[in-house]
Amino acid sequence: MNTGPQHSVEVPYGWVVIIASLLLNSIGLGAPNILFVVLKPIAADLGTDRWVPSLAYSLMMIGAGVGGIAMGWWMDRKGIIFPVMFGSVMIAAGAFMVSWSETMWGLWVANGLLIGLLGKSAMIAPLIANATRWFDRRRGLAVAIIASGQGLSGAVWPSLIGVMVAMVGWRETYFWYAVFSLATMVPLAWLIRHRPPTPPPGRIELGASADGLVLGWSPARVQVMLWIAVVGCCTAMSMPIVHLVSHASDLGYSPVRGAEMLSVLMVAGFVSRIGFGVLADRIGAVPTLLIASVCQMVMLGVFAVVEGLVALYVAALLFGLGFAGIMPCYPLILRLWFPVGQMGWRIAAQYLFGALGMALGGWMAGQVFDLTGSYSPAFVLGMLFNLVNFGLIWMLHLREAGGRFSPRPT
């Protein structure tokens, strides 16, 4: 899409929406970060095994994925303010409940229902879907900034939470997080309450034809292809992310070194995500996704063979630079090919299938290790999943580049 500034929907207030959305996403991600840090103390305090707080995290993520579709549907019909305001209150309510929970059931309900299904579900897909309506020329950058909240929260929350837990304990940490989230997220939600600008009359976007087809195919066919593609890339993506620390330990390096490698990977991803957003604005979301997919696939192959300490740090750095460009491209593709009024639920569904891929890859790599005693076969298997992703996106790219479809007005 190439339009001049005189046809753009972009206005200065759009950047207020983006920054507020970034902060909302980053603050909301404090809830899972607390659970990461205090998993062991929670298990000890409740007198349970560690699978109990671990299941709380799984329930949170599943709830966020499923609830995101409902939140996106709500946003499509009523605007962004209602789901985000509701989600902000639910995250705070869930954190309050955790701080008072004395049983595993209270922990599960607080994390799975309040924080996940009703809270976190409003903090990524609806915010990104809303951002695509405020930007056209710099849509890639806008989406990438919000998506980088994952890296920002990972850089800020764990250290801060560690200090709080040492000072006041895990229950009081949850309590004060609830107070902080309620005091900050509700005002931030109010900042994004405005409706996005209306596109100029006659504005054209390629991909969706006047007869309702997408790239000459049915919308359902293209959507399913994108769902399968995101499962492929996220299954591959999660393998080194989830198991890098264990992989380094198996090679004889300390867990501290493995944690440093993971930090390098995440920081590289935070920086890279912004860069890929700019690249998507210049060359398009589909070519950018293909580049990121190839980078991830190559570095999975590198992880399968390298064993030296320096080589592992370099591999973590390069993997982080590559994988981070993948997920922000999907909302851009959906915004280009499908009606704007469907963005909320379509983007949420895309992230749900991505979460399923992440869960599958993390589990599968562990199973492969148990069978073979090595993570190298798992990384090779990840390359095959990544190849499925590349093949499907390449097929769509050929349809986009070579087809002659009747565009529809935005």
Task: Tell me the Rg in angstroms.
Answer: 21 Å
Distance between the termini: 12 Å
Sheet bearing the most strands, described? 2 strands, antiparallel
Count, helices: 16
Order of strands, main sheet, comes to: 1-2
In terms of per-residue confidence, which ranges show pLDDT below 50 for 5 or more consecutive residues?
1-5, 405-410
Would you tell me the overall average pLDDT?
89
* Strand count: 2
* Overall outline: globular
Describe the structure.
The N and C termini lie close together (12 Å). The radius of gyration is 21 Å and the shape is globular. A two-stranded antiparallel ribbon has the order 1-2. It is mainly α. Helix 3 packs parallel to helix 6, helix 10 (219-250) runs antiparallel to helix 11 and helix 12 (285-305) packs antiparallel against helix 16 (376-402). It has helices at residues 13-28, 30-46, 51-78, 81-100, 104-117, 125-134, 139-147, 149-168, 170-191, 219-250, 255-283, 285-305, 309-323, 329-337, 343-372, 376-402; strands at residues 204-209, 407-409. The protein is built from 16 helices and two strands.
Task: Give the gist of this structure.
It contains 16 helices and two strands.
Write the layout of secondary structure elements.
Elements: H1 13-28, H2 30-46, H3 51-78, H4 81-100, H5 104-117, H6 125-134, H7 139-147, H8 149-168, H9 170-191, E1 204-209, H10 219-250, H11 255-283, H12 285-305, H13 309-323, H14 329-337, H15 343-372, H16 376-402, E2 407-409
Antiparallel strand pairs: 1-2
Helix pairs in contact: 1-6, 1-7, 1-8, 1-9, 2-3, 2-8, 2-9, 3-4, 3-5, 3-6, 3-15, 4-5, 4-9, 6-7, 6-15, 7-11, 8-9, 8-11, 10-11, 10-12, 10-15, 10-16, 11-12, 11-13, 12-13, 12-14, 12-16, 14-15, 15-16
